[in-house]
Amino acid sequence: MEVEKAESPTTRKKKPGGAKITACILAVEFCDRLATAGFQANMITYLTKYLNLPLVKASNIITIFSGTAHFTPVAGALVADSFAGRFWTILSGSLVYFLGMITITIFVFIPAFRPPPCPTQTDCKEASNFQLGILYVALFLQCIGSGGIRPCVVSFGADQLDMSKAKVEARKWNLFNWYYMSLGLASLIAITVLVYVQDNVAWSWGLGIPTIALVLSIIVFVLVSPLYVKLRPQGSPFTRLAQVIVAAFRKRNVAAPSDPSQLYENTELDAAISLNGRLQHTNHFRWLDRAATVTEADIDGLNRPKAWRLSTVHRVEELKSVIRILPIWGAAILVFASYANQHSFAVLQGRTMDRHLFGSFSIPAASLTIFGIAGLFSGVFLYERIFVPCVRRFTHNPTGITHLQRIGIGLALNMMVSIIAALVEIKRKQVAAAHDLLDKPNAVIPITIFWLSPQFFIHGLGEVFLHVGLMEFIYDQCPESMKTTAIALYSLALSLGDYLGTSIVAFVHNHSSTEAWLPKGNLNKGKLENYYWLVTGIQAVNLIYYVLCAWRYTYKPLALHST
């Protein structure tokens, strides 16, 4: 049963925008990631060396901070989609993030905000609750700011593309690749220039530089604002999802019609949330069809129905689309949890290894991430220029492989990273034992730090498949009106992965044998390789679960508006 509209909402009013404008939007996220990566990459060093915190406590602070920074985008997406819009949400988030950067820069600059130095790294006085409180305030402000920036940047950038132009769909998917490339470039600068400045000049300069860059990006973002395409928010998508659930529950005793054409549709009512096409009925979760079932009590108000009693097929299918995504999304949470702490542990491993590159120059352990960035850059280039064109000949898919296949490859690569990490840790301790260095935590083990580079490179390669693929999948399969929320769901998966990863580390630390896998001080006396084997097993089970979910997944059907 359908209520027709005189005109089809196939086009929107032509406004400014374009790829060049999108670049200005990405600049804000670039500076956000520059600041985050510049501090987070070397944060384990600051917490353990300058604040004298134990390994497990420092690692958990990092993952909780990362998890919160990935959780706040959910709130930011709700604000943007409900009333504020993407432009104002990005701008507000940038200003709050700037306050956080100012606070953290002052924190590392003033000596009173850290305990006395402890060169021996034994029986050291830890940072006080007051000192840690200042740190937590700064990190919390950064998390709030990221919540306004991260969920809106990609969707706001996509808004600038005219979807009526030829081949724009392909450019939209390229946007995700280049978005992730820009994040990789920011991380590259952070882990080379900024980490070097932190280790060899001053932490205040290492954090002050990205603060200045953030200010400049905010200025450019505001100056270019008259050229942006700014779509009006259409209300909270979660309210519409709740309306479907309530309507279906209220009609739980009503039988849904066997003929889907008898379900309620209203093109005028759905016009603002279906600019690119209406979702078609599917046979999944048929009990939700009751929300679109017209009863005698609904007959008199079909043109303007009560939203909490009668929903359109399009709105019912919005909820079904979200439900279908959740199992795939859940698989991502487990893999994110598995490697949530691997970077921090690798940095600590690197600090015990030979870091000399040439002459007296030695690279900071945190700069190992450069190999991950190299893997990311190489992966994007090879994926776009070689992999997709070759595979497209066999699959006849414009993107080469499906989003689900891309995610699956990423899951397999990340499991390989954990295996390599375990083998490298075994090798590192064998060399330490051979030179009688197991009881000397500050000694340099005669094994080059570049043994750690393969795991970082493969991890970066895996991000091209897993992270970009997951972002594309969620963005594509989420309802049109939930594009900002879709990016927030991606961030939420990272957040829950960080929190779950923290729980795994805490569990391992509390329940490992008398020889702790994750020791408080001397990493050489631990069993870090056992932790890596544990997360490898988790990822193996998760990969099997993912394959089963992907095999049964059904892509959402979309009916394009006739032109």
UniProtKB/TrEMBL annotation:
Signal peptide: none annotated. The keyword Transmembrane helix applies. PANTHER family: OLIGOPEPTIDE TRANSPORTER-RELATED. It comes from Oldenlandia corymbosa var. corymbosa. Keywords: Membrane, Transmembrane, Transmembrane helix. GO terms for cellular component: membrane. It holds the Pfam family PTR2. It comes from the Eukaryota. It is found in: Membrane. This is OLC1v1026689C5. Belongs to the major facilitator superfamily. Phosphate:H(+) symporter (TC 2.A.1.9) family. The chain crosses the membrane at residues 61-80, 87-113, 133-157, 178-197, 203-229, 322-341, 361-383, 404-424, 444-466, 487-511, 531-551. Its main location: membrane. GO terms for molecular function: transmembrane transporter activity. It is a multi-pass membrane protein.
